[in-house]
Automatic annotation (TrEMBL):
InterPro entries noted in UniProt: AraC_XylS_family_regulators, Homeodomain-like_sf, HTH_AraC
Gene Ontology molecular function, alphabetical: DNA-binding transcription factor activity; sequence-specific DNA binding
Provenance organism: Alistipes timonensis JC136
One Pfam match: HTH_18
Residues covered by the HTH araC/xylS-type domain: 43-140
Keywords in alphabetical order: DNA-binding, Transcription, Transcription regulation
Top-level division of the source organism's lineage: Bacteria
Annotated protein name in UniProt: LacI family transcriptional regulator
Length: 146
């Protein structure tokens, strides 16, 4: 690829060729797009979740951020995001875990980094969402399949 770029820079008339570059992983942007939501309270909760995903996050922590009761927050979150707060936190953690595994972290290092206390729960949740275990995912990343 570098040779092709060099050749084109040196000779703008040089013959071009298509080069296919496969992505290694997807990185979620840390922008306001993640928090785009018509409900400002849900947007605030989403922002907090994404910015603190490596910490232990409870629904009570989120309730303290907004002027809503727990029940109302859970209801509005479910209506807005089509999932429960707890399930959303797990989904974000697993997505972050795939990123960390793709960057070369071990499964146990990634689990600790994301505040998972039990590796069995991590593996079960990961497999439910991704269809394979974290170890299988990491192995496939190493082999270049992801």
């Amino acid at each position: 690829m570098a040779r092709l770029i060099d050749r084109i820079i040196r000779d703008p008339e040089a013959e071009r060729e298509d080069v296919m570059v496969w992505p290694t992983h997807i990185v979620t942007r840390q922008s306001t797009d993640i928090y785009a939501n018509n409900d400002p309270h849900i947007a605030e909760v989403l922002k907090y979740i994404h910015e603190n995903i490596s910490q232990k996050i409870s629904v009570d922590d989120l309730v303290s951020l907004v002027p809503l009761s727990r029940r109302l927050l859970e209801t509005r979150f479910k209506r807005s995001m089509s999932t429960s707060i707890y399930d959303y936190i797990i989904q974000v953690r697993i997505e972050k875990m795939t990123q960390l595994l793709s960057e070369g972290m071990s499964v146990s290092e990634a689990a600790v980094e994301l505040g998972f206390s039990d590796i069995k729960n991590v593996s079960r949740s990961f497999k439910q969402l991704k269809g394979i275990t974290p170890s299988e995912y990491r192995q496939q990343v190493i082999q270049g399949k992801f």
